[in-house]
Specification:
The protein has 232 residues and is α/β, with parallel strands linked by helices. Helix content is 31%, strand content 25%. It folds into 2 domains: 135 residues, Rossmann fold (3-Layer(aba) Sandwich), CATH 3.40.50; 69 residues, Alpha-Beta Plaits (2-Layer Sandwich), CATH 3.30.70.260. The strands form 4 sheets. The protein has a 6-stranded mixed beta sheet with strand order 2-1-3-6-14-15, sandwiched between helices. Helix 1 crosses helix 2 and helix 2 runs parallel beside helix 3. The chain is globular and about 55 Å long. Bound molecules: ribulose-5-phosphate.
């Protein structure tokens, strides 16, 4: 990541902080953009600019980063409904549909976002795409038993499928599952249909397609932060 991209990520994170109010329970996403948000939120709490804010982390990583930033944490079981989730994305379409999960936290990220009244996405402009699947692989989280059957099914739908690796071993999510990274050479012509088909397959835990979920995307470019809003 270049220094410039990192600066843009921080700009997007700073813009999202403006949505946070005293007393809110926040869903805390995962990734390098969210890491900026956690630092800025921690600083605002330390300075007394915000008070009584708590967060539900969407990954072991975010839990660790939140504690380092001094953000009080609770679990999803403790709170059940959240005021606002702030998370990054790997792709953002003009309709505010997303691909997420390159950081491996897609299951908990989706659970946290679905439990939230509002979901705000933060990213640098480079994540904006005209069609999902053009820039990022689609991560699909599957149980390890029989994972190849899903890989073959996805390949039959035109994907180049790779089992995600870490240090020469299959990567495991925080929930112990495998992730299939699926490259669709021409992007995804029908993300809704694919998401629906995958939802019905036993052994598929969750996909990185976050469709119709985000309320707002804050996309930072060299000329400032562009806000995309969903009409509800
Ligand atoms: C993690 C995610 C991240 O939000 C996504 O990968 C973006 O990460 P980054 O902010 O590091 O670019 O979905 O599972």
């Amino acid at each position: 990541m270049t220094e410039d991209t990192d600066r843009l990520k921080r700009d997007a994170a700073r813009a999202a902080l403006e949505e946070v109010r005293d007393g809110m329970v926040l869903g805390l996403g995962t990734g390098s953009t969210v890491a900026h948000f956690l630092e800025l939120l921690g600083a605002a709490l330390a300075d007394g600019d915000l008070t009584e804010v708590k967060g539900v982390p969407s990954s072991v990583r975010t839990g660790r980063e939140s504690r380092a930033a001094g953000i009080p944490l609770v679990t999803l079981d403790d709170v059940q409904t959240l005021d606002l989730t702030v998370d990054g994305a790997d792709e953002v379409s003009p309709e505010l549909d997303l691909i997420k999960g390159m950081g491996g936290a897609l299951l908990r990220e989706k659970m946290v976002a679905q439990a939230s009244r509002r979901f705000v996405v933060i990213a640098d402009e480079g994540k904006a795409v005209e069609r999902l699947g053009l820039r990022s692989p689609l991560p699909v989280e599957v149980v390890d038993w029989g994972w190849q059957v899903h890989a073959r099914w996805l390949e039959a739908r035109g994907a180049d499928v790779r089992l995600r690796q870490k240090e020469d071993l299959p990567f495991r999510s925080d929930n112990g599952n495998f992730i299939l990274d699926c490259v669709f050479p021409d992007g995804l012509p029908d993300p809704t249909g694919l998401a629906e088909d995958l939802r019905h397959r036993a052994g598929v835990v969750v996909t990185g397609l976050f469709l119709g979920m985000a309320d707002r995307a804050l996309l930072a470019g060299p000329d400032g932060v562009r806000s995309l809003e969903r009409d509800r």
